[in-house]
Write a structure and sequence with these properties.
Elements (H helix, E strand, L loop, with lengths): L1 E5 L4 H17 L4 E7 L3 H4 L7 E5 L5 H15 L3 E4 L4 H9 L4 E5 L10 E3 L15 H6 L18 H11 L4 E5 L11 H9 L6 E4 L6 H9 L5 E2 L6 H9 L3 E5 L2 H8 L4 E5 L15 E5 L21 H4 L3 H5 L2 H14 L1 E6 L2 E8 L2 H9 L8 E6 L2 H7 L5 H9 L6 E5 L13 H6 L8 H10 L4 E5 L3 H10 L3 E5 L18 E6 L2 E6 L4 H9 L5
Parallel strand pairs: 1-2, 1-4, 2-3, 4-5, 5-6, 7-8, 7-10, 8-9, 10-11, 11-12
Antiparallel strand pairs: 13-14, 14-18, 15-16, 15-18, 16-17, 17-19, 19-20
Helix pairs in contact: 1-10, 3-4, 6-9, 9-10, 13-19
Length: 534
């Protein structure tokens, strides 16, 4: 089967379209999937293993002749299915001209009469149970008339993109700001961005990103605070996303960088001025926050407007920098303190252990090499989603997988501790873990048996009392958390140094055990008592 997906709108729309590409790939695993985008957006879907071919349409000079030629090419290609994400004449014409025996699109398209399946594209699209459809959910209606939870878009970032992004900032903690937008009234005002930058601690680097046309704006903002880096026009879409992925936080308008942040699950704060999240273009990251103006003076349309018709632009100027920052400075202060001290004492019921939050495999390896003939009671990896766990580990016990599957119902951050290296799908970021379990030369069967006994074999689930805890751990240097010391099988103190209370559950071959009870412990009790029943 050959499938074509059409999305020739702006870069942010193409990013969101990758969610439907993933859905199509899952629904038709043997199908060849191609995508058509406007020229300039092809990089977004390049290297996507779900996509076989990327068609482009140059919507500049000569666009109409190019449209007719493209229609002929698509017809020759012989597609079986076409999914059209746009609601305009040109995309409708291409869908019809393809001659595909099955064509799906939105009812608002002028060529909707030629579609075999149609969906209503409502902006906003309220739900009976409350809330509004996100754009990725609206697109999903072209596949099936059923509302599913929003699925994040996907970006396939290569090592070269990550290296380029990281070469700009090095190992320093940093935040990313994308202050510009193609639509003026969607853009938070320049004075607000400048005030935000001035309130970010000097020990955190500020990186400003955007297109070449945004360089002047970004340079003025960079000049407002020493040490800021103007990267506008210097990074590709994927390199910008790679930079966001490792940032302590990303600050954006309602624009394409917001959707790049969603694709890499970057922690993001989105500022909405003329538009509103209920239109369907809000953030999808696990750690996301939306700041909305209380003064909707500008056009409430999908793209806002190029000027404020009221003249005062309060929908932008009414948003305060402290409101955008929120609790971030407090979290950063705690995270910086953890990074500076490297090791924090953790009091348990039967002794004292140590916990260190580390940012990369080299730091992990240095710590492990510093342990003389000892192994950690627990070596933990911090994950943000079940999918991330499943991609990293293989052959997890069925009881563990049941817990992980059910944990999506709660705001659960997962803390996997000390699984044997044979259960890991090792990647570059995990080589230090494998090294830690074999950094002593084993020359005899006796020594080998002792070595096996030393390997940690436990798993834990950690349920934060507040999302700030997850942010703190991430900023302090996750994903690796190393815990060393005795007494970890006893219940931990309910609170230590005023840190938020959490529930900590441990899995062993004998079953699950509650180590520490937090506010959400009751919801997890059935899983602990009888995991096979849930």
């Amino acid at each position: 089967m050959k499938i074509l997906l059409i999305q020739t709108a702006f870069p942010g729309d193409v990013v969101l379209a990758t969610s439907l590409v993933a859905e199509l790939s899952d629904r038709f695993p043997t199908a060849v999937i191609d995508i058509l985008v406007r020229k300039g957006c092809e990089e977004i879907v390049a290297d996507n293993p779900r996509v076989s071919r990327v068609w482009t349409w140059n919507k500049g000079k000569g666009r109409h002749a190019a449209l007719l030629a493209l229609g002929e090419e698509l017809r020759k290609h012989g597609y079986d299915r076409v999914y059209n994400l746009q609601r305009f004449f040109s995309s409708g014409y291409l869908s019809w001209r393809s001659g595909a025996p099955f064509r799906s699109g939105f009812s608002e398209n002028p060529f909707a009469f030629s579609f075999h399946h149609k969906a209503l594209h409502r902006i906003p699209h309220p739900l009976k149970e409350g809330g509004y459809l996100h754009e990725v959910q609206r697109n999903r209606l072209l596949l099936e008339d059923k509302v599913y939870p929003p699925r994040k878009p996907e970006l396939w970032i290569g090592p070269g993109d990550e290296e380029k992004a990281m070469s700009m900032v090095g190992s320093q903690p940093y935040v990313v700001l994308a202050p510009a937008s193609q639509w003026f009234t969607k853009q938070w005002h320049e004075e607000g961005w400048a005030e935000l930058i001035r309130n970010i601690p000097d020990s955190i680097v500020v990186c400003l990103i955007g297109g070449k046309e945004d360089r002047a704006l970004c340079q003025r903002l960079a000049n407002s605070r020493p040490g800021s880096i103007n990267l506008s026009g210097s990074l590709s879409f994927k390199q910008s996303a790679a930079l966001m992925k490792r940032a302590w936080r990303v600050y954006v308008n309602d624009s394409a960088p917001l959707h790049l942040a969603s694709a890499v699950d970057a922690p993001v704060t989105a500022v909405f001025c003329a538009t509103r999240p209920e239109l369907g273009f809000g953030p999808l990251s696990h750690d996301s926050r939306v700041v909305i103006s209380e003064h909707p003076c500008c056009s409430p349309g999908l793209h806002g407007a190029q000027r404020c018709k009221s003249g005062h632009f309060l929908c932008s100027k009414g948003i305060d920098a402290q409101e955008v920052l929120g609790d971030d400075p407090t979290i950063w202060s705690a995270a910086l303190a953890l990074r500076d001290s490297e090791v924090e004492t953790l009091q348990t019921m039967s002794g004292i252990g140590q916990i260190a939050l580390l940012s990369n495999s080299e730091a992990v390896e240095r710590l492990l090499k510093g342990i003389d003939n000892e192994y950690a009671d627990t070596v933990c990896l911090f994950f943000s989603s079940v999918e991330e766990v499943q991609q990293t580990f293989i052959n997890l016990p069925s009881q563990v997988m049941r817990i992980l599957d059910k944990s999506e119902r709660l705001p659960v951050s997962l803390l996997l501790s000390g699984l044997k290296t044979s259960q890991m799908a090792l990647s570059a970021g995990l080589t230090a873990i494998a090294h830690s379990n074999r950094h002593h030369d084993v020359e005899s069967a006796v020594d080998a048996q002792t070595e096996r006994h030393r390997l940690p074999t436990e798993l834990a689930l950690r349920v934060p009392f507040t999302p700030a805890l997850r942010t703190l751990i991430r900023c302090a240097g996750g994903p690796l958390v190393y815990v060393h010391g005795k007494g970890m099988k006893k219940e931990l103190n309910a609170e230590h140094n005023g840190r938020p209370n959490v529930t900590l559950i441990r899995w062993t071959e004998e079953g699950f055990f509650t180590l520490r009870k937090g506010p959400d412990a009751g919801q997890l009790k059935p899983w602990v008592d009888d995991p096979l029943s849930v």
